[in-house]
């Protein structure tokens, strides 16, 4: 009998029911709350671990029988990669599990930035009647997605009725359904020069860290809009602040940051053209159900020795 440890609930109060379902598949099921996680001796026999960041509190070497880690997140920076590779432990992520709410978040922020909604909210709070003639239309704008994975694809679906030109940047310039044209990452500077709105949807790898530095930000139109929904480290925050101080960019929406939570000392809080949310774009009432559907399907496949969904490529970083 395979043994599985879950350290993350499903936000819907059905944990006991779902433990029973997994037991019917042939598993011995354990549950520990990750927020209060402590290592226990039975864990040495665990075959599979469903978690987010257990290894911030426990040593992977204390799980000698572990063969598979299923993450609740898309990113896997929290996994001890060297040990995972050495022991040939399979890692699967929650790719696609949060893409719908994140796609909605992208569309929301495109509209909020281009319609200058932050100023409108401030006017309302101050009971100030002000007709804002600086607002623009989304129609016919060029929107570039840097990264054409699930988040970008779900965003593009929701932008299909706006009459916009959708550009995509990926590793090799391969065509992606829904995008008007795609380019290789080698052509990113040319894409930035012609784009009105830039949306970052990249994984965090050695190659993408600080991809948006001073030099790259300067490739963007002076009145462009920048949105980051992926990983904070892709933008150099110091360079972004300096770029904004120079009067560049019409608006910026950030949901992720180099270090979270964002320090209260960060200048980003104080710049009017910046909209900040607290890594909140992935959250919706559906995340528990989608997480469970993936876990169940993969646990069913695992017990039957079938290929798992969402196996990550540790060496490549995604």
CATH superfamily label of the largest domain: NAD(P)-binding Rossmann-like Domain
In CATH, the architecture of the largest domain is 3-Layer(aba) Sandwich
Largest beta-sheet details: 7 strands, parallel
Domains, number: 2
Mean pLDDT figure: 96
Indicate the CATH topology of the largest domain. Rossmann fold
Structural class: alpha/beta
Q: What is the oligomer described by this structure?
A: single chain
Question: What is the overall number of helices?
Answer: 9
- CATH class category label of the largest domain: Alpha Beta
Going across the biggest sheet, name each strand in turn.
Answer: 8-7-6-9-10-11-12
Radius of gyration: 22 Å
What's this model, at a glance?
This protein has 318 residues and is α/β, with parallel strands linked by helices. The protein folds into two domains: 3-93 and 285-316, Rossmann fold (3-Layer(aba) Sandwich), CATH 3.40.50; 98-276, NAD(P)-binding Rossmann-like Domain (Rossmann fold, 3-Layer(aba) Sandwich), CATH 3.40.50.720. The chain has helices spanning 15-25, 81-87, 99-114, 117-125, 150-159, 188-194, 214-217, 237-245, 287-303; strands spanning 2-6, 27-31, 48-51, 68-71, 90-92, 142-146, 165-170, 181-184, 197-200, 225-228, 251-254, 274-276.
How would you sum up this structure, described in words?
The protein is α/β, with parallel strands linked by helices and 318 residues long. It has two domains: 3-93 and 285-316, NAD(P)-binding Rossmann-like Domain (Rossmann fold); 98-276, Rossmann fold (3-Layer(aba) Sandwich), CATH 3.40.50.720. Helix content is 28%, strand content 16%. The protein has nine helices and twelve strands. A seven-stranded parallel β-sheet has the order 8-7-6-9-10-11-12, with helices on both faces. A five-stranded parallel β-sheet has the order 2-1-3-4-5. Helix 3 crosses helix 5 (150-159). The two termini are 31 Å apart. The model has no long low-confidence stretch (mean pLDDT 96).
């Amino acid at each position: 009998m395979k043994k599985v440890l879950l350290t993350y609930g499903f936000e819907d109060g059905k944990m006991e029911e779902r433990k029973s379902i997994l037991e019917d598949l042939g598993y011995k099921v354990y549950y520990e709350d990750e927020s209060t996680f402590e290592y226990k001796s039975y864990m040495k026999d665990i075959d599979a671990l469903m978690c987010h960041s257990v290894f911030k509190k426990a040593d992977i070497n204390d799980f000698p029988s572990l063969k598979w880690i299923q993450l609740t997140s898309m990113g896997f920076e929290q996994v001890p990669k060297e040990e995972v590779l050495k022991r040939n432990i399979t890692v699967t992520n929650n790719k696609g599990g949060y893409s719908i709410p994140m796609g909605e978040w992208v569309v929301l922020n495109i509209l909020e930035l281009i319609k200058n909604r932050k100023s409108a909210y401030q006017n309302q709070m101050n009971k100030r009647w002000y007709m804002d003639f600086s607002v623009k239309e989304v129609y016919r704008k060029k929107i570039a997605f840097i990264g054409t994975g699930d988040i970008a694809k779900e965003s593009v679906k929701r932008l299909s009725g706006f009459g916009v030109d959708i550009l995509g940047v990926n590793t090799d310039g391969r065509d992606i359904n829904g995008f008007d044209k795609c380019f290789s990452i080698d052509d990113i500077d040319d894409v930035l020069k012609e784009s009105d709105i830039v949306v970052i949807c990249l994984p965090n790898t050695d190659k993408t860290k600080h991809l948006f530095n001073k030099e790259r930000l300067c490739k963007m139109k002076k009145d462009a809009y920048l949105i980051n929904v992926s990983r904070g480290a892709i933008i150099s925050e110091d360079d972004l602040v300096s770029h904004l101080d120079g009067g560049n960019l019409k608006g910026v929406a950030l949901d992720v940051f180099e270090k979270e939570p964002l320090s209260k000392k960060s200048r980003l809080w104080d710049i009017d053209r910046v909209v900040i949310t607290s890594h909140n774009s992935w959250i919706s009432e559906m995340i528990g159900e989608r997480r469970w559907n993936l876990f169940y399907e993969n646990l069913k496949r695992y017990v039957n020795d079938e290929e798992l969904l969402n196996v990550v490529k540790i060496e490549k970083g995604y």
